[in-house]
Specification:
about 675 residues, 5 domains, eight-stranded mixed beta sheet
Amino acid sequence: MKILKFPLSRICIWFILGLLTSFYLNASPKTALVLLGWVSIFFVLTYYLSIKRLDQKIYFGITTYALFFLIGISTQSLHNKRFCENHYVNKFKSEKNYFVGITLIEKLKSGASNERYIATVTSLDSLKTQGKILFNIRKDSLNQKLEIGSQLLFYGEIYKHREPNNPNQFNYGKYLENKSIYGQVYADASELKVNAKLEKNMWYYAAAFRNRIITNLEKSGFAKEELNVVIALILGQQQDISPEVLKDYQLAGAVHILSVSGLHVGCIMIAIGFLLNPLPKTKFGELLNLFIIIAFLWLFALIAGFSPAVTRSVVMFTFVAVGQYSNRKTNIFHTLIASIFFILLVEPSFIFDVGFQLSYCALFFIVWLKPIFDKIWMPGNKILKYIWGILAVSFAAQIGAFPLSVYYFHQFPGLFFVTNLLVLPLLGIILALGVFVMLWASITAVPELLAKLLEYSIFVLNKIINWVASFESFIFQDISFNWQMLATCYLLIFAFAIWIMKPNFKKLSLALVALLIFQITYLGTEYLNQSQEEFIVFNAKKTTLLSDRKGKNIIVYSNDSLSEATMNFALKPYLVGNFASISKTEKISNLSYFNKNKILIIDSLSVFPENLNPDILILTQSPKLNLERIIQKSKPKMIVADASNYKTYAMRWKETCEKEKIPFHSTVEKGFYKLSKEN
């Protein structure tokens, strides 16, 4: 690929490898900076040697890549807040309460029972600290709305993030850590001391600006459902979108519309460029065009409160705009790579952000494949040309984003091209009108006619999305896809795209080899999964859920019929992650066997066979029993309590097991319990 011939491309690759190395090895800043210093010296030496002797250029190249590799390591380690001496993770001990001082900086989507915020920890007892934390406050305890910038003090415990409660579940703790949020706290409103003075930082002003816009839109009589969608579209705030609307957007393959991203910024950039077409094509005219476009992009970032996703996208398209202005043949790839380098240099954690990955993949493939699609067919009719342009962009973006989307979300909307064909033209109008309305709302109430026009546009958009989402047979869900298949899938896409660009036997051979590698990866995954056997005690609230897996076939044991919530929360991730399916569902019996292990299950009836001497004892549904007597009589090797038991019972059983020196596993405390063939 030509792009890999660019020195900037190779430099960026080594920089990213440095970021990843530092992240996984947890490199300290001191070590990273010392190594960077030494390599910098060698870089300077090899530079002067390469000037005098051409045969020394290879050493200059090696030290250049080594330098950017270490710049990547240093960047990541310097951004790792754990190495800050006064960070709260270095000051607190688990299972201990502190007087915790925090300042709210961002409102998140509410949970089932808690309002959630991102906050900065300002103090632990008398110690001054720093660092972001997840703050949870019980909904039913709130009698007043907490503002961004609120300074709070309460007495409580800081909890470290737990591993997922069930196998193959989304690791929310890891997700938060990638955003430099290393713990969370819980509180009731009655426990809070609220400082009357707000901390007026950048988050406060951004939130105040957004709230002013929302208040003025509400005064204009905006319908609630449409208002929540437009707030998501323009301001990037999804907290209040109804689950039904959100599900429709997911099924239609349009959920990215609700997350302010490169698509929105790109549409705004195109719309502004269209409006600026009358400007003269002189050097001054093009420079003025560039200035206006960049000004409007950053104005949009201001309206959206400079949220990370928006700022990232605006930076990306600022580089694209500059690249277009410079008007070089391959410059767009240079500018994309330069924007990646700049963004990751400022905030390296974005490399793990799904939105960042999808935005750049989609944009790269649009730039790369759109010209190829245009060469394949370019209709003469203006209407057909317009439709083909949208379809070509949609297909190019989807090809680039498809492997990542399936890997992260395990679903694929088969009618994505219909969604894009219907939605993209309307989205451009909505965004242009929406930005204008938001600017108006930032000053005063919006005229009712203007508000109703935007409201109706959103209403039509929602109806289109709902219609596409209704074709459920075209929505492919629960697709099993691991990281090995992700890597080989991209290899396959690149190989076939290169062959299609300039077909010859050599490139066809490479494409077929890539196809073979993908097939081997898939079959290898199938074989490994087929040979696995394991018994799982799930952590399902108020429910007993067990499974016995042999290869791709899973027998599910439950005390009751499986609810949709239990399926989605506990079972579905496990099935998808292991390329498996439920072969049958059975009621739980007292006695089970797995890999020569005798498993005794005692439920609320407390009726079980005597003198079994089980290897594993599973307690469910809060049975009333004398565990000490059972242990002394049966001598089990392991005792497991699932989430269907009362917490007080589980705590008492834990104490008994500690006394009798028997291993005890509570799924509420430790997550799921797994018994594998190796056990």
